[in-house]
Specification:
Length: about 600
Amino acid sequence: MEYFKKILRFAKPYSKYGYLNIFFNILYSLFSALSFAALIPMLNVLFDKTEQLKEPPVFRGFGNAKDYFMDSMNYKVSQYSGDDEMKGLILVIGLVLILFLLKNLFNYLAMYFITFLRNGVLKDIRNKMYSKITELPISYYSEKRKGDVIARITSDVLEIQHSFLSILELIVRDPLTILFTIIVMFLISVKLTLFVFIFIPLAGALISRVGKSLKKQSDNVQREQGQFLSIVEETLGGLRVIKAFNAESRFYNTFKASTGRFFKFSNILLNRQNLASPIGEFLGILVIGVLLWFGGKMVLIDGTLDAASFIAYMGLSYNILTPAKSISKASYGVKKGNAAAERVLEILETENPITDKPDAIEKSSFANGITLKNVSFKYEDDYVLKHFDLTVPKGETVALVGQSGSGKSTIANLVTRFYDVNEGEIKIDGTDIKDITKKSLRQLMGLVTQDSILFNDSVAKNISLGKETASREEIMEAAKIANAHEFIEGLPKGYDTNIGDGGNKLSGGQKQRLSIARAVLKNPPIMILDEATSALDTESERLVQDALEKMMRNRTSIVIAHRLSTIQNANKIVVLQKGEIVEQGSHTELLAQNGVYKKLVDMQSLAG
C-alpha cells in the first residue's frame, strides 16, 4: 500500500470528483439494498399474504424496523388498492422499478465523476514523468534502455490506472453495498445472516493464497515489455546498418526470444489472475446452496421465516456476490499495480545530481571569458580528464584536437553542465557555473554537434527551437548565415516543409546547416562546436565551414575538431592526449614545434 499512497497524492487536484463519487456511491449502495428489500411487499401481494391495514403503523425503535417497514408498505398498498389486488401489485412494481432506476442512475453518476479523477491522475503522472525524463542528466540514459523508459510512461502508467485507480471506485461502493445489504439481511433474519458469515473467512483465505505471487509475475511482464520495446527502438534507429550487414535475422531472433519470455510470463500472470473469478463465483454459489438448504428449512419446517422474505433474502445474498468478487479482483489489481507503480516511482523519485543551488544566480551577460581550473572528471572508474587547465578569453576561438578518447567532447559536456566535474572548477566571468542557474548558463551557449539532432517538424520549427518567438524574417536571416536558405527555398513547402523523423528527408550537409541556423538564431555569446564537420563530404564541408566562420565572428568559441584544416585560424589550438594537454599554441607555432600536432596534420594530409 506504500506505493498506492504515493500515487494517491496525484489525486489531490481532483478531490472534488472523488467526493462526488463517494456521495453517489453511498446512494447507490443504499438503493441497491433497498431495491431488493422492496421485492418483499410485491411478493406478499402475489402470494396473497398482504394484511389489510386501516391505520398507519407507529415507529417503535430500530429493533422493530423490519416490521415498521413491512407494515408501512402494507398500509400504502391497502390504501391504494382497496379491493383490487392488481392496483396494489402495480404500486409495488412501480416502487421496485423506481428504486432500481435510482440505483443505476447513482451508479452512473458515481462512475461519471470518477472518470475525471482517473484520467486526470493519468495525465498528471505522464506529465510529471516527461518533465522528469527531460530534467534527469544525460548520464542517467547511459545506464537505462530508452525502450524501458517508454514502457514505463505508457503501459506502466496505464496499469496504474487500471489497477490502483479502479480501487478508488471500489473503496466506497462495494464495501458499503455489502454493509447496507447485510443490515437489511439482519433485519430480515438474524439467524440466517449469522450462518452466512461462517463461510466468508473461508472465501477470503482462498483468494489471498492465489494473489500472493501476482506482484512478482507482473514485475516480470513489465520488465520484459521494456526489453522488447528497447529492441524495437534500437532497430528503428539502426535499420540502415542492420540491412547493410544482413543482420535482420539476428535482431529478429533477439526480439523473438524477448516476446517468448513475455508470452510465458503473461500466461502465468493471467492464469493466476483468472483464478479470481471462478473461485469467487464457486464460493458464492456454494454459500447460496447452503443458504437454500438452511433457509428452506426455516421456511418449510420451522416456520420462522416467510417465503417472500426468504426469496428477497436470496436476492440480497446474490447482491453481495458481485461486490465481493470485485473486491477480490481489486486485491489482485493492487499486486499488479504495485509492480507498475514501483517502476514509475523509480523514475519520479530519482534524484538529479545536477541541480541549481537555492541561491543560484541568473546570468544574462558574458564579459570576460571561461576558465577551467584543475578539472578532473571520470564517467565511471577511469579519469577522462586529469588536472586540466584552460582559459578561453572573450571573443577568441580555442580549438581542442587529439585522438578519439582524449577527452575533447567531455570538455563540451562539462562546460554546458551536462555533467559535473569530480574535482576542480569551471568559471564564467569568475563565477563558478555551479552557482549559475542551468537555464541561464545554457542560454549563454549555442551547441552544434557532430550528429545533427533534428525533430519531426517543419524547417522553421527546428530552426526556432531556441527562440520560439522568432519571426519568419529572423528565421530566414539565420538560415542565410548558415548557407541553408537556398536549399530550404527549394523544398516543397519551403520553411514549412516537414523534415521527417530525425530530419531523414535531408542530406547530412543540409541537416548540419539547419543545426547551425538554429544556433545562429539563438544568438548566444558562447559557441561550442563538437566535431561539426567531421561527418560531411568535401562540398558540404565547405558550405558548413563557411557558415561556421560567419557564425563565430565576434563570438567566443570552443571548437572540438576532427579535421584539422577547419581550425587553422583559431586563436589557440590545444592538443589533448589521454585527458591531459600535451601542446598548445597557434597553428603556425604548433607546426614549428614538430610534435604531436605536426604528426596529426601529416597523417590527415596523407589520408587526404
